[in-house]
UniProtKB/TrEMBL annotation:
This is Carboxylic ester hydrolase. The keyword Repeat does not apply. Residues 73-470 form the Carboxylesterase type B domain. Belongs to the type-B carboxylesterase/lipase family. Keywords: Hydrolase, Membrane, Transmembrane, Transmembrane helix. GO terms for molecular function: hydrolase activity. InterPro entries: AB_hydrolase_fold, CarbesteraseB, Carboxylesterase_B_AS, Type-B_Carboxylest/Lipase. Pfam families: COesterase. The chain crosses the membrane at residues 44-64. Its EC number is 3.1.1.-. The keyword Membrane applies.
């Protein structure tokens, strides 16, 4: 067969076939021609795809294992024994460390007792990988609030980026807020974290301290057997005891006991201010940051003890022995219901705000502003003051406040401020009227009411404090507008409640 007769179509494969007779034949097979390189590329793509899928699956599995696996554990020795902590997110954490004897039984309403001096240290390894109980409290701080927490709550926690740094690291001691009535040093989103310690390369300490009636009850019967011959301000004494622990132990965590800054928000800021004015805290810290605190308290020990007789009457007790036998619920249930509500609302003239900070003659020798202005003995350290414009947005005083009309707003202002006289009420309504700027269209009455509370309770006192402080020493004032821009809000709503900027002075 003459193959020249046939034209080979382009892209046609051909091959020779040998038959029995030995003749050579050409068989044409018409096929679509495929580039061999293209075939190879497709195979490679399939292979690579399989490899990528396998790697992604493996990576996901490893990430799941890493996330589900417990963080690496580590151990540190303190003056009272060994602690087991954890390494996570680039920093070590040691949580729920006791810094004083549990204030229970006969130690209720007593100054905190040092663990070493009391011979109450532990012999075995202490598990510091988890938080312990918050201090006894009622949340929310109203009549229908739930009792939670324990009296055995004097614990602190430490976060550090390095246990053995080249140079000792600065130390930040966080004092939580909550009107001296609630919350704790371990609230999620409201306390330090491993990530924060790693990012700022500083050591952080956060502490629990006694609250409400357990931390600030002043009664004459509680003086019996007390070496201080006072009552009240136990929560402040707890804070001082924690600072003593920091001075003696923070070097075990890579911290520098010579560079301790105390900082707190709301009543935590009030605590900072109190510690600055207290001779008992002398030398325990070297800088102070007050965020939305208050220094406006001047109730004497005697007046506070008289006001708190209502609590004594409610319990039916006549002496300290009886009071110390009461359960946590009994103490908190007999706590005057208005003591918490009044702190969240406009003031009422002549109404005592419950067993809170007082001038007891031991922790505080005189009202803080008198100590300051009269150049008394106080801890003269660099001082930073900051406030938010809408402090009261965190805990609005009424559940239905978001639906208020302007008529509701005026009625409540007149009701709350009536004890100060008609002139005061009219002036308040004139200053805070419906023409005031409002970022929302349907919750302006709420906005204005919480603005008035914020100004009276926090903003104006802090501005006054700043003016007094600036006249005598270096001070920086940091007003923060609201709504702010970056952190997320805990509660959805037009007023963007509970934006926390407590850490901004550290990272900006």
């Amino acid at each position: 067969m003459n193959e020249d007769v046939y034209e080979l179509p382009e892209g046609t494969e051909y091959r020779y076939l040998v038959q029995d007779e030995g003749e050579e034949q050409i068989q044409y097979v018409r096929r679509h021609y495929v580039n061999p390189l293209l075939v190879l590329s497709r195979k490679c793509i399939i292979l690579i795809t399989c490899i990528v899928v396998a790697l992604l699956t493996l990576a996901g599995y490893l990430a799941y294992v890493a996330k589900s696996s417990p963080p690496e554990e580590t151990e540190v020795e303190t003056e009272c024994g060994w602690l087991r902590g954890r390494l996570k997110d680039g920093a070590y954490s040691f949580k729920g460390i006791p810094y004083a004897e549990p204030p229970v039984g006969k130690r209720r309403w007593r100054p905190p007792e040092d663990l070493v001096e009391a011979g109450a240290c532990w012999k075995d390894m202490y598990d510091a990988t988890r938080f312990r109980s918050v201090c006894a409290q009622v949340q929310p701080m109203r009549k229908n609030g739930k009792v939670m927490g324990q009296e055995d709550c004097l614990h602190l926690s430490v976060w550090t980026p390095s246990l053995h740094p080249v140079e000792p690291l600065p130390v930040m001691v966080w004092i939580h807020g909550g009107y001296l009535h609630m919350l704790s040093g371990q609230e999620s989103g409201y306390c330090p974290t491993e990530e924060l310690a790693h990012h700022t390369q500083m050591v952080y300490v956060s502490l629990n301290y006694r609250l409400n009636a357990f931390g600030f009850m002043a009664l004459e019967v509680l003086r019996e057997g007390s070496h201080t011959n006072t009552s009240g301000n136990y929560g402040f004494m707890d804070q001082i005891q924690a600072l003593k622990w920091v001075q003696r132990n923070i070097h075990h965590f890579g911290g520098d006991a010579r560079k301790v800054t105390i900082f707190g928000q709301s009543s935590g800021g009030t605590s900072v201010w109190t510690l600055m004015m207290s001779p008992l805290a002398k030398g325990l810290f070297h800088c102070a940051i007050d965020m939305s605190g208050s220094y406006v308290y001047n109730a004497s020990l005697e007046s506070a003890e008289t006001d708190n007789l209502e609590f004594l009457t409610r319990t039916g007790c006549k002496d300290a022995i009886c009071l110390r036998r009461l359960s946590i619920s009994q103490v908190l249930q007999q706590y005057p219901s208005w003591a918490g509500d009044d702190l969240l609302d406009l003031p009422v003239k002549g109404t005592f705000a419950g067993p809170v900070a007082i001038v007891d003659g031991y922790v505080l020798q005189a009202p803080p502003f008198e100590i300051w202005e009269n150049h008394g003995t106080y801890n003269d350290v660099p001082f930073l003051v900051g406030t938010t414009e809408q402090e009261a947005d965190f805990h609005p005083p009424y559940e239905n406040i978001s639906t208020w009309t302007w008529g509701d707003y005026q009625w409540f202002v007149k009701k709350k401020l009536s004890t100060f006289g008609e002139n005061m009420t009219n002036q308040a309504l004139k200053l805070y009227d419906s023409s005031a700027p409002c970022p929302t269209s349907d919750r302006c009455p709420e906005r204005l009411y919480t603005t008035m509370i914020s100004d009276i309770r926090v903003t104006c006192p802090n501005h006054d404090l700043a003016k007094r402080a600036a006249a005598s020493k270096l001070l920086q004032l940091v007003p923060l507008p609201q709504p702010l821009l970056l952190p997320s809000s805990r509660q959805p709503g037009l007023l963007q409640r509970s934006r926390n900027y407590s850490w901004d002075p550290l990272t900006s």
